[in-house]
Amino acid sequence: MAKAKNHKELEPVSRGGMFPAFGDEMERMFERFLGRGFGPAWMPRLRWPEEMKMPYTPVDIYEDDKNVILKAELPGMKKDEVEVEIAEDMVTISGEKKKEEEVTEKDYYRMERSSGSFRRSFTLPAEVQAAKARAKFTDGMLEITMPKTAESKPRKVKVEVEG
């Protein structure tokens, strides 16, 4: 049985789908072709921006008897960077993150600014009372609870069986 050359080559797709793994693979290809730390020794290692590693926001939407619930993973985001809108049968989550990093070392100075935004809209599986919706943001996880309207709540109706 052949042994793998490099443990990294056998990693499954991770951190949000195909694109993060693609970015990681591109980094490995550049390192193989140009060598580790391609560039002067004082230059920091080039990396794909974090915004490129999360091309979409993972979301779960489900419902129970009384509510429609949306959960979205928003790592690194803050509560004031996230916006939620509900209009008719759609819920939209959006956000923008701005990052500024300054590094001052003995032999070099680097200032980087990056920003990234996302916007996702979903059709709701049931009619909801938008005015009574609640959103909670804890540790990078957004949870929106939207109460269903009386018309969309499941009702039990007993049907007589004739014979």
Describe the structure.
- Helix content is 13%, strand content 37%.
- The chain folds into 2 domains: 1-55, no CATH class; 57-150, Immunoglobulin-like (Sandwich), CATH 2.60.40.790.
- It has 163 residues and is mainly beta.
- Strand 6 and strand 7 form a beta hairpin.
- It is elongated.
- The chain has a 4-stranded antiparallel β-sheet with strand order 1-2-7-6, with no helix packed on it. A 3-stranded antiparallel β-sheet has the order 3-4-5, with no helix packed on it.
- It is built from 2 helices and 7 strands; from the N terminus they run H-H-E-E-E-E-E-E-E.
Short summary of the structure?
The protein is mostly beta strands and 163 residues long. It has 2 helices and 7 strands.
